[in-house]
Amino acid sequence: MDSFGLHWDGEVAYQSRHGDRYDDIISDLQGHQLIYPCTCSRKELTENARENTLPDVYPGICRHRETIPHQPYALRIKTDSRSISFHDELQGLMTHQLAEQDGDFIIKRKDGIIAYQFAVVIDDELQQVNHIVRGFDLLEATPKQIFLQQLLGLATPGYMHVPVIVDGQGFKLSKQTQATAVDLAAPEQVLFGLLVLLRQTPPVELKRASVGDLLAWAIAHWRPELLQNKGAVSCGLIN
Ligand SMILES: [Zn+2]
Questions:
Q1: How far is the CA of 59 from the centre of ligand 1 (A)?
Q2: Is the domain 15-162 a CATH 3.90.79.10 member?
Q3: Would the pLDDT of 152 be above 60?
């Protein structure tokens, strides 16, 4: 981040220090019977999915369980029929039905780890985050997070989901797909290349600019409407 001229504006917040807050909220949700233990294994869910027409929707198998199970369990939150709508600054109006499209989702995993969806909502609140700009691959997580915000009485921040860079097969460049690491030795070239990928048409002179000047230009000239494909940009374009 430092190499790219990106500096944080406050103290670094550590998720590992938010454990008590997560637990308090979980107890609260438990008290209101909004969550329940789930012992379903991945295998059971996959088998169930094969017989089902909506494979990604949790079918609510454990929803009506009366007792706390003796084996390890995850915690799922009860979704309802409400429709979640939000205006994404780049993607436009998004509408989603959680109960139909996802079903009850996990907020604490069987291994005790707090699920991403749940942790970020609380972390964002603790840090008073009011704008979230992140990759398109997280767009589908947003309705779950807004649902949690609504349930917990928290404000919903503004969202903008920007395209992710994909390889020739359409996969997001990431460590998982063994993508080459970003060249920290030449941050200017990387930033210039990114502006090209994002169709921001940087002037050629900017190729020789410093990181600070590149960022200043990008902020002053940022025009998201120039993006043709709002979900993904191919790394082939960079050359
Ligand atoms: Zn279950």
A1: 8
A2: no
A3: yes
